[in-house]
Design a protein that fits this description.
Largest sheet of chain B: 10 strands, mixed
Distance between the termini of chain A: 53 Å
Largest interface: A-B, 27 and 37 residues
Largest sheet of chain A: 6 strands, mixed
Oligomer: heterodimer
Mean pLDDT of chain B: 87
Shape of chain B: globular
Radius of gyration of chain A: 24 Å
Mean pLDDT of chain A: 89
Number of helices of chain B: 10
Helix content of chain A: 25-40%
Order of helices and strands of chain B: HEHEEEHHEHEHEHEEHHEH
Strand order of the largest sheet of chain A: 2-3-1-4-11-5
Number of domains of chain A: 3
Structural class of chain A: alpha/beta
Number of domains of chain B: 2
Number of strands of chain B: 10
CATH class of the largest domain in chain B: Alpha Beta
Shape of chain A: globular
Structural class of chain B: alpha/beta
CATH class of the largest domain in chain A: Alpha Beta
Chain lengths: ~600, ~300
């Protein structure tokens, strides 16, 4: 008999890189609300967010069968867990405080590469692999989602479109004017950060491949080829901003669409095919409660140079916390989802391609939704681990540079204790200082602080104007360490002034943004706290948009107001309701740059 | 348990079993080598690897049995029959069919490759791997000729498939032309259907290919099957755990199931199959597979060229 021996396919360098890049990554845990009856065993699934609604629905059906395992009842529950963050926690230890949900029995990241990463990281510590037993629940290819009129302007669907077209249009000083549509402005690309997002990693690998003309066998020397780097830089230059999740782009695009500005936010977004369907249903964030369909639907461009798939495995973990009953229930549930054709039809209804090959691809993956079930023509090979490591390093060097003002709340409430004996300000300082490592040396960073009347009537002070981080880092760190909390929260005029300062020095070649961290709500003197004028100001310039990424810090921050600020500049709100999470949240925010 | 042992056990326990069957209203099978037993009444579970998913699925469906997946080397549960290649199962497994190694290639591309090479065989696959389809007379949209292979450490069929390729002495850098690698032949074919643009051709067992022929048609297109000359054949065997399971194993050699082999993508140990799946063809001259002595070198060559 031939038996399989364990293999190590991912080098430690990659594991370290992934660990570093995903540390502090998001883990949102929204249990499916199922109440586990006393005496029943809970069998938790940790799934990447885009499958949460689907798994919740399937688990509900499965639980209704009330199947017993070894005479005991078991209940499937579903929790959201972003792939990178879950991989890190499975390798380094799942939080015992319940903040990340219960230890999973089934883990379903977006791609099976994450399972290999977990095993390698465990192996590095001399521990046995736990992500061994997997089956693909569903698959979905990475595509470029484009508003239909824009795709048609590029010749879609008759003409195959690819990354080279993106590069050509992005490099053209006329932008869309080169194709007879000057009203659409420049070509803008929405692409997530490959260190955080599976889609971002796939899109980045695809652009490097496109630069070489290869479809497999990408090498480290390819990554140093000047022509390849020129191609990659050209594509990256079109990026609106990065970020940890594609939902940010789709949400912003949908909001712009509903306001009649569907062609202004982004010309294309690198997303999974399934996201196009969710968007066209009016539910870009996959909440299960769709709004009106978009006025301008998206269509999928399957890049002619080739693309990669997310293969959505369901692992039944070989972990000590998985009991025999839980394993049996998990196996039965996985079989229920994959082997039962009716359930694979439900997978299809959600817009994924079924992982069971006996189920044909059909609606809603059709031309009416801007999709082509017969595409892609070419699938790109996942690069070797060492190449992937080098690719991420190369991307860090060649991605679009950022020009960011960090606008920091130093109001008196920041001196409140936040847990563990530290003040909110102390935790925030530490988060910012750690976060500086995630910028690249030529990113231009500025530091402003605000409370009330810091500089005469002004509620804000420019501590350090934007300058390359490599030139100002010691000064910046010293300034951050020296911050003290006092006064009120002059939020709106400070935000307005910071945005105006970035606008004044707007650089088309960079991501121009304000990172706003506040723990309160505006309490300035009237009329300083009228929100509408600020929102009008933030949304007043569609071409040279300065995006404001607010962090709602602590329980007293006004999520509603900060969401409005984020939306007005087509950015995204981040929440660190528990101050102890600020470091992780701050890294998510920085993933946008 | 071997066939004669199963027979003796069944004989010794026959009276008791019949009595119990009468009491609980359940008929007891009365097995015997080569006889047509009442398999529909056997209370067993069929366990198969992905490679034999069609075999398990069809037999379970036809005879009202349960079926489950099986991982090579794992413990066999009671009242369970494991079906696999004889070389992957313990020596007491009973062979009841065989399967040749074959090449599956997407039908629209097959004529182009045949035209370029004269024959679609391992030499052609290795020689033309990485060649653009445009040069081969196909569409430039197809990119280059890319292959799929399974890890030869997993099972005997995957080892034989790799031997066919390795015998052609693929050059260094060959790995870049093999973007589809899977843990076993069944997974390889499943992956080929799921990710149809990942590879153009795969080498695997005929039974693994047969399991996905219908899925391929429904999902991505037709697969065409070619056979190397000469063709290695592998015996397919079954091993039961428990009395009823062993009875079922015996019945696999009986005429009722032997008549079904062709529809399962299997061939009888001797003679021609009946009602063979229509997409399957005529293998080449039968040849012996890799010897025990050859196996370590084959695995090493895989590690060097593909897997390491």
């Amino acid at each position: 008999m031939i038996t399989r021996r364990a293999r190590l396919r991912w080098p430690l360098a990659l594991l370290a890189l992934v660990a570093a890049c995903t540390s502090g990554g998001p883990l949102t845990t929204d249990g499916s609300g199922v109440v586990v009856p006393g005496g029943c065993e809970e069998v938790p699934i940790a799934t990447s967010p885009e499958k949460f609604t689907l798994f919740t629905s399937l688990a509900e059906t499965f639980n209704a069968t009330e199947t017993e395992f070894e005479g005991e009842c078991a209940v499937i529950t579903v929790y959201r867990a972003s792939s990178g963050a879950a991989a890190r926690m499975l390798a380094e230890g799942w939080p015992e405080d319940g903040s990340a949900g219960p230890l999973p029995v089934i883990w379903s990241p977006a791609a099976s590469t994450w399972g290999a990463i977990v095993n390698e990281r465990l192996a590095a510590r001399g521990e046995a692999p736990i992500a061994n037993d997997f089956q693909r629940v569903m698959i979905t290819p990475l595509v470029l989602g484009m508003p239909r009129p824009m795709a048609e302007a590029l010749g879609w669907p008759e003409t195959d479109v690819g990354w080279a077209d993106v590069l050509q249009l992005a490099s053209d000083p006329e932008g869309w004017g080169a194709l007879g549509h000057p009203e659409w402005g420049d070509f803008r690309l929405g692409k997530t950060n490959p260190n955080f997002s599976t889609s971002g990693l796939a899109a980045t690998a695809a652009t490097y491949y496109a630069g070489t003309g290869k479809t497999s066998g990408l090498t480290i020397s390819d990554l140093d080829d000047p022509e390849v780097l020129e191609f990659v830089r050209g594509v990256e230059a079109a990026t609106v901003h990065y970020g940890d999740t594609t939902l940010t782009f789709l949400d912003n695009m949908y909001r712009a669409d509903q306001e009649g500005r569907g062609l202004t936010y982004a010309s294309a977004v690198a997303v999974e095919e399934v996201s196009i369907i969710a968007y066209n249903r009016g539910d870009p964030a996959d909440t299960g409660t769709p709004g009106p369909p978009p006025r301008v639907p998206l269509v999928a461009i399957y890049p002619v140079e080739g693309t990669l798939f997310s293969d959505n495995p369901a692992y039944i973990l070989d972990a000590p916390w998985v009991t025999d009953v839980a394993r049996q229930a998990a196996t039965a549930f996985r079989s229920f989802v994959i082997d039962d054709a009716a359930n694979q039809q439900r997978v299809l209804e959600f817009g994924f391609r079924p992982g069971n090959p006996s189920v044909a691809i059909g609606d809603p993956i059709n031309s009416a939704n801007g999709l082509n079930p017969n595409k892609p023509d070419t699938e790109l090979a996942v690069p070797d681990p060492e190449v992937l490591t080098a690719l991420l390093d190369s991307w860090e060097e060649n991605r679009k540079t950022a020009r960011v003002i960090m606008l920091f709340d130093v109001s008196g409430s920041m001196a409140d204790l936040a847990g563990g004996g530290d003040t909110k300000l102390a935790l925030a300082k530490q988060a910012v200082l750690s976060g500086l490592d995630n910028f690249k040396p030529d990113d231009e960073i500025g530091l402003w602080i605000f409370s009330t009347n810091l500089d005469g009537d002004n509620d804000y002070i420019e501590v350090i104007p934007p300058a390359p981080l490599e030139d100002i880092r010691p000064q910046l760190e010293e300034s951050i360490n020296g911050l003290v909390a006092d006064g009120g929260t002059g939020l709106y005029d400070s935000t307005r002034a910071a945005v105006q300062a970035v606008r004044d020095g707007f650089d088309q070649t960079k991501i121009n943004a304000v990172l706003l961290l506040t723990d309160g709500m505006c309490d300035d003197n009237p009329p300083g706290c009228e929100l509408d004028p600020l929102l009008g100001f933030l949304g007043s310039n569609e071409r040279d948009v300065v995006r404001v990424f607010p962090v709602a810090y602590g329980e007293d921050a006004s999520v509603e107001e900060l969401t409005a600020i984020a939306n007005a500049s087509a950015a995204r709100l981040y929440q660190a309701t528990n101050p102890l999470t600020i470091e992780a949240v701050f890294q998510q925010v920085i993933s946008n740059f | 348990m071997s066939g004669w042992r199963a027979g003796l056990v069944a004989l010794a326990l026959g009276g008791v079993i019949l009595a119990i069957g009468w009491v609980i209203g359940r008929d007891a099978p009365t097995p015997g080598p080569g006889t047509s037993v009442p398999v529909a009444e056997a209370d067993v579970t069929l366990a198969c690897t992905q490679t034999f998913s069609l075999v398990c699925g069809e037999l379970a469906s036809r005879f009202g049995l349960a079926s489950t997946s099986y991982t090579l080397g794992s413990e066999i549960a009671s009242d369970t029959v494991v079906i696999g290649f004889a070389g992957d199962l313990p020596a007491e497994a009973i062979s009841f069919a065989r399967s040749p190694i074959a090449i599956a290639i997407w039908a629209e591309k097959a004529p182009r490759l045949q035209q370029a090479c004269g024959l679609v065989d391992p030499a052609c696959l290795v020689g033309e791997a990485g060649t653009s389809w445009e040069e081969l007379g196909g569409s430039p949209d197809w990119g280059t000729l890319r292959l799929g292979l399974a890890d030869p450490e997993t099972g005997i069929a995957d080892l034989e498939a790799w031997k066919l390729i390795a015998d052609q002495q693929p050059p260094p850098g060959f790995r870049q032309f093999v973007p589809l690698t899977s843990q076993d032949g069944g997974s390889l074919l499943r992956d080929l259907v799921l990710f149809s643009s990942r590879a153009d051709a795969v080498v695997s067992s005929e039974v693994a290919i047969a399991a996905q022929l219908a899925n391929a048609r429904a999902r991505a297109g037709r697969l065409e099957v070619y056979y190397p000359e000469p063709t290695p054949y592998l015996p397919v065997a079954a091993l039961g755990e428990g009395r009823a399971a062993n009875s079922f194993v015996e019945s696999l050699s009986g005429p009722e199931i032997q008549a079904l082999l062709g529809s399962l993508g299997l061939r009888p140990l001797t003679g021609e199959p009946i009602d063979l799946l229509e997409d399957l063809g005529e293998p080449g001259t039968e040849t012996a597979g890799a010897s025990q002595a050859e196996r370590p070198a084959l695995v090493a060559s895989w590690d060097t060229l593909i897997g390491a």
